[in-house]
Amino acid sequence: MDPALQVLAWWIAFGGTHTFLSHPPIRERLIRHLGEQGFRVLYSLVAFATFIPLMTTFFVHRVSRGVWLPALALVPGVWWATMVVNLIAIVLLVLGFASPNPVSTLTARPGAGVRGILHVTRHPAFMGFALLGLGHLLVLRAPIDMAFFGGLLVYSVVGAWHQDYRRRRSGPELAEFYRQTSFFPFVAVWQGRTRLALSEIPIGALSVAGGVFVLVFLLHHRIFG
Question: What is the pLDDT of residues 103-113, one digit of tens each?
Answer without folding.
Answer: 877 666 655 67
